[in-house]
Predict the structure.
Amino acid sequence: MSFPYLTDVLHALGLNLPLPIPTFGLMVGIAFFTGKWLAGVEAQRLMPAQPPDFMSNVCMMGFIAGIVGARLFHLLEYPRDFMAHPAAMLLSRSGFTIFGGLIAGTLAGIWYARRKQAPLAPLLDAVAPALMLSYGIGRIGCQISGDGDWGIAASGPPPGWLPHWLWAQTYDGNIAGAVIPPPGVYPTPIYETLMAFACFALLWKLRRHAHAPGWLFGVYLLLAGIERFLIELIRVNSTYSLFGKDVTQAQIISAACILACIAVMW
């Protein structure tokens, strides 16, 4: 079952209160403010010389650019659909590509830091755990609203030890308006949330590990790249033909993240 608006959540709880707030947007907001707070805590530890509003400005720049980048990369992923229905795709309540947001948001944050003559490597280390935690929270919004970021059709019955809802879901009432026949599709947003929280725990543990500035952000790139590359194996997405293989946009960028991780950590 999906709950596109907060009103739907309240109805499921037996409360008849009209609160037409999109659940996806609500979770994105929670993800942003949680990440902003966490990045600020780490920035105070790693960059004590910076003014108090520095990290807040970095996060706001990154967030705005990230929203634009996430939408742009989604349109690039489905160019034929965009050419056929440009207005509908631009104004759609769903359709954001996380890696587009990451790339655009990171570049915007780096641009701002350069303008303020702030050191980049400690800045990237400060935001690494926050980015991973925010990603996991944002995926909760994908799951609740049913925005289309689900997996392929589930194959066969679930293992005996696994609840059916964790194996397959039909996302009834999803915001994308899709009808999914039983038994359903893999609920990949749940898988990504769990993996993101596990990756965040690792990054949080490693943040005080003796390392060169920038190394922790390299670990983030590695974890983010591996996580997304693997989930794409069971996720619905358009594909490109590359060297005779069908790959998704996210897998290409995931591979680039892993290569960037090697360079950054080196």
The chain has a mean pLDDT of 89.
